[in-house]
Specification:
By secondary structure, this protein is α+β, with helices and mostly antiparallel strands. Helices cover 62% and strands 14% of the residues. The protein has a three-stranded antiparallel sheet.
Length: 140
């Protein structure tokens, strides 16, 4: 996962321009489908819960938008989206990696999510450092 950081359109926040391979995006979308399925069983009586669901749907839409690209796809992520992807990968692996039988496809998905967890964690840490740089007054 190649990453670079820049100041977003608002001139205040940092965004990450990442290039991900199709297999990484696909496995994240599969994990996101699992997350959304579990969220579908929840009650959405509070505005915060609805906003959280909308954020997950927006993230899925972002990942889906890369389907027009080939084996590698560009993604522009906000810090919140990077944190969500990091959380998604960790939660999926934690909850789905059990000692009982898992089909090969599920084992491969868990392995792939484990492999991209490191770069996602790095991305979140780099976001924090990049955001701190933006906040520092420029030297003149």
């Amino acid at each position: 996962m190649n990453r670079s950081y820049r100041i977003g359109r608002d001139g205040k926040t940092v965004v990450c321009d990442a290039t991900m391979v199709r297999a990484e995006i696909d496995v994240l979308r599969e994990a996101l489908a699992w997350k959304r399925e579990s969220m579908a069983r929840a009650d959405y009586d509070e505005a915060d819960a609805v906003l959280a669901l909308r954020a997950w749907i927006g993230l899925d839409d972002l990942l889906l938008s890369t389907s027009v690209f080939g084996d590698e796809a560009p993604l522009t992520l906000t810090r919140e989206q990077a944190l969500m992807l990091c959380e998604l990968a960790a939660t999926y692996v934690t909850e789905r990696d059990v000692e009982s039988y898992q089909p090969l496809q599920e084992r491969e998905r868990i392995g792939a999510l484990r492999a991209i967890s490191g770069p996602l964690i790095d991305c979140c840490c780099e976001f924090a450092a990049a955001q701190d740089e933006v906040r520092e007054p420029s030297l003149r």
